[in-house]
Every structure is written in structure tokens, then in C-alpha cells.
Amino acid sequence: MKRIACLLMVCVVCIAHADEDTLFQPADLSRIADLGDPALSHDGNWVAYTISSANADDDQSHSDLWRVRYDGSQRIQLTHTPDSNEWRPRWSNDGAWVAFLSNRPRDADASSDDATTQVWLMPAHGGEARRLTDFADGVEDFVWSPDAKQLAVIAIDPEFPADTEKPKNPPPIVTERYQFKEDGAGYLDARRKHLYLFDIASGKAELLTPGAHDEQLPAWSPDGKTIAYVTKRGADPDRHLNYDIYLIAPKAGAPERQLTTFPGADLDPYWETYPAWSPDSTRIAYLQSGEDKWVYYAPWQLAVIDVASGKSRIPAPIDRCFTHPRWAADGRHIFALVEQSLVTHVARIDLADGTLAELDHGARFDYDLDVAGKDRIVVLGGDDLHPYALAAVEANGLRALGDHNAWLDKKTLAKAEAIRFDSADGTAIEGLLVKPVGYRPGTRYPTIVRLHGGPVYQFSREFMADWQVYAANGFAVLAINPRGSSGRGFDFARAIYADWGNKDVQDVLAGVDHVVKLGIADPARLGVGGWSYGAILTNAVIASDARFKAAVSGAGASNMYAMYGHDQYIREYTLELGSPWKDRALYDRASFPFLSAGRITTPTLFQCAEKDFNVPCLGAEQMYQALRERDVPTRLVIYPGENHGLSIPSYLRDRMQRNLAWYQHFLRP
Length: 669
Known about the structure:
Elements: H1 2-14, E1 34-40, E2 46-55, E3 60-69, E4 76-77, E5 86-91, E6 97-102, E7 118-123, E8 130-131, E9 139-144, E10 150-156, E11 181-182, E12 186-187, E13 193-199, E14 205-207, E15 215-220, E16 227-231, E17 244-248, E18 256-258, E19 264-266, E20 276-277, E21 283-291, E22 301-306, E23 312-313, E24 322-327, E25 333-340, E26 343-350, E27 356-358, E28 364-372, E29 376-383, E30 386-394, E31 397-400, E32 416-422, E33 428-434, E34 445-451, H2 465-472, E35 476-481, H3 490-493, H4 503-517, E36 521-531, H5 533-544, E37 550-554, H6 560-563, H7 570-576, H8 584-590, H9 592-595, E38 604-609, H10 617-629, E39 634-639, H11 649-667
Parallel strand pairs: 34-35, 34-36, 36-37, 37-38, 38-39
Antiparallel strand pairs: 1-2, 2-3, 3-4, 5-6, 6-7, 7-8, 9-10, 10-13, 11-12, 13-14, 15-16, 16-17, 17-18, 19-21, 20-21, 21-22, 22-23, 24-25, 25-26, 26-27, 28-29, 29-30, 30-31, 32-33, 33-35
Helix pairs in contact: 1-11, 4-5
């Protein structure tokens, strides 16, 4: 390891750049301010949002609330809690208050070990916050009533009855659920997430939706008469993906009403999108996917449903993913984010004729938005050279609402270039190419192929910190969106349905051939790597082709027989692959990298997170063991206590440093 570190230092020094301080390095990951949760006040004059940043003292990432005027002035930090978090700010309709979620303890002297996530309340223009709710096991989500007197709250059933003492040791975990584990939540028992009505004045909470099912994504109608939410019902909700929107009046004992009836996902919570009420409370805009059998391959379409009749329609069927719909004040248009190949932009959809007009343009990726007042729009997004930032969307383009990452202006960053090439069967494939800092035409460079997760996701024109680290250290980066990726429509995504590591491997190898032909990639110094499905595909690539001299496979799996019942995807496996005892051919195909591990010669660094129930460590462990058995250079790194998405700053930095050192060692000896 010392030798690798020394080689890394030598290579960094050798880069033809006068000022090393301008190069983006692994330590810079901890300096990035991560913005989220943009929320406009009802009149559109103010924006509240969160900023998450690394705290070196406790090696955690913490989030605080900020506020800025829509004109960009009076930007201030509302909360200052270095040892806890605040997120999901929500304005009261009168603009006087901001409610939010926080995991801070009730009292300053209380132990943080006893803190749970609750709803807190503070004056909109700053001041002391007070805790509103006191749910035993915390609050997951909430929304204001229009009159600001109540909250609709999503909270999980308590683990222990009220007024009972917790046992000294955790009780045995007992479950009869079909899906019995979930990343971040752990093992699932009989407890469920339910909708509650919370009265702010009295502090009283009333359960609205009891039963063996979960409720999520609450949205209160502007007229105050109805709460919409998303749930799965049926004999066993764990066995399907058929989410539906339900309605209920805000009073205990009120009957529920199922609004959507499509036999597939209506607003899967994974899409991070709430039901959006029209200004007159007569319609709801939402997202609709394909039938269950298509799991995550079908694009999420914008849908509008009439609340009285239950009749729904797809106003703009364009075979692309929509997210975060918001109504225009006139009730005749909807604003939403629309994904295309490599980019996502804000668009306005005319409900009368389905026409779609993009409101921002160029090589950027928009992640979230909010709309209020007379169609004032704020968008959270970025591009190759800028992490997510807030901007107002206006007729003449975007107007920045401040820059929390201005320090990056002093860094020498590498811009991504869009590329297009044909796969072996003639299918057009797209991706991004990042040339190393100090690139000299005519020189071939060690090249790292990055593979995205999903599989139905895509690399977009957004800031990728790891690409910048690699480019600063003399590597070219090739990011390919093979078949299975989003942004290109249903047929392009489902081309790998129940056939992982086949067409997408062909596309990856064609991309490598393309950049070698361009004279940029050195064919003798190729690396590959990814996280999640990116690691699954990495394993398939190195089992299919021996040209790669180094690989990094993080949170991946290759023996799908072993994953059945061990990760959280039992429902998805059954829908796409069937069962191991009936559909052996499909499971053999999906397990090709493990069953063919004897042909792998690429030195591979395997990584995983100890408490990951999304893609558990078993997947990395088995591949590591297979390569170690054959004395192929390999290493296994396990990040303690972490879930699928690493969050501890030192672990994120460690992963980046290890990946870089691995590629340096094998591609730049």
C-alpha cells in the first residue's frame, strides 16, 4: 500500500500544471455544499432550501436550512446545528412560518442518542425553533393544511407500546412479510407507515389510515377538504408495485377513497414526486409508469386525473421520464422536469394540446423544482463544472440565486464532451468523454470507463466529483449510457430486460473501441468501474473481455441465485427473472460473471457497505473470493455501518483515494 501511495504522489506531481492547488483532489469532496429541498413561499417571494456539508469534527454530513429572496437578495442561514440536521422546509400559506424535519434533541442538554426525527416550527424570517410533534419513532414526512392549523403527518407505528420501558437488549426480529428487508430501514416487521392528522394548537395526533399497508407522499388540497397520499393495497402489498393515489377527508374515522386504478405504479415513492393538486382542487397531476412486469424499465409519464370522476389521461405521451409536476396558476399548464438523453430540463406542458416547451436549455441536469405565486419557478440543477445550485427560471433564461460552491472557480476542471457511436449491431449509443487536465492532442491516455447504476438511469450533464479527480490525475474518463439506460425511451431501456450483461456489455466495448479509434484512449491502459448496477455490469465486462488492466466493483453482485431472498429486491426478481427453481436459464444468464469467474484476469478492487440491504456485501465477497482463489490481484474493502449510498465523509474520501490509487497502480505503473 505504501508503494501505491508513493506512485500516486509521483504521478500527481508529474501533471503538466503549474499550480497543484488548482487540481481537484479527493480531499475536495468534503468541501462541496450539497443543496436540496427547494421550497417557494406561497406568494413566490422567498425560497427555503437545505445545504448539506461535511463536519470534520464528528465525520458526518450535516444539513441546515437557508433562505433567500426570489430576487437573490437577503440570503441567510436559518439554522446552525453542527451536531444534527434540518431538512424538508415547508412554508405556511400565510408565509409566517417554516416547518421542517429535524433530528435534533428536544432540549439543548438532552442526549443526541435519544433524538428522533420530528416536525419543528420556526418564524419564517428566523428565530428560535420549537418542536411540534412527539411521535415515538419519529416522523418521515408532513404537509401543512391550507389554514396552517394542522399537519398531515406520515409516521411509523411505534416499536414499543406507550409508557413501556425499552428492553436492555433489542428483542428478536420476527417477520412474516414477503419483503422483509429494506436498505436504510433494516429488517421489516409488522409495523407500517401511516397517515396522521396533527393539530398544532393542542399537539394531538389522530390516526387516519390504520391497516397492514404503508402510506406516503401526503398532499393537502388547496381548499382544505382532502388529503391525497400514495399507498399499495391488496392481499399482500409487498408482492406488487401497484401504487395508487388515495384520498381522505381530514378527520378521524373518515373513509378512504381510491382515486387511481391503473394496474401499475402511480407515483412510486422512489420517484421523489408528490401528488400535485390543481389550484381549484379539482385535478391532481402525478406520474404513471408501466405495468408491474416492466418494473423500472418504463418511463414515468405525466398523468392528470379528475378528482370527481376518477378519469385520467396522459397529456403529453413522449416516451420520456417526467418528475416533479407543478401546476401553473392558470390551471391550463403544468411545469415539470423532463429527461432527455444526457440532459434534464424544466418544461411547460400545455394540457389542451400536449405541447411541451423547454424553459431552460443547454448541457445541464435539473434535479428539482418548485412553483408558486404567479408562476415563479425555482430550479435546482447543475452542469459538468458546477454542482447543484438554485436558479430562478425566467423568460430570458436562468438567474442564479447565489453560489455556495464558489471555491470551485479556482479549480482547473475538465469539461465533458458528448459522444455518439454505433454498437456492434448498429444501435446508436451515446455517452460523455472527459479528457484529462492538460490534455495534449495526439497523446493517448490511460482511460477509465465509468458505468452507472440503475440499470435504468443515465449519466447526464452534471457535476461528477470522481470524474474531476481522475481528470486532474491524468486519466481520460469515458461514461457510457448503454442499452438499459434512461433518457432514450422505453424500448432502449427494456433492451436488457432479464438479459443483464449482454447488449449493455456490447455497447460498453464498442464505446471503448470508439475512444481508442479517436486516438485518446491507450488500449494498453484501460480501466473500468462502477457502483451498484455499475458494479454488476463491471463484473460482466471483465468476465467478457480481458483487455482491462484494472477494475473497481463497488456494491455489486454476480451470483443472482445467492441474492434471491438476501437483498431487498425479491419482488423485482420475481417479476423480471422468475424463480431460481423454475427459471434456471435466466438466473444462469444473470449470474454469468460469477459462473465464469475462472476467465477473469483483470485486477479488481471490490467494495461494499456493511449494512447495505440494497446490494449486500455478499455480492462483492463472492466475487472477491473467486478472484482470490485464482490469485488474480484483488482486494475487498467493507465500509462499516454504511448503507448502499455511503454518507460518512471520511469513507467517501477513502473510497475515492483507493479507487484512484488502484487505477494509478495498474494503469500508470
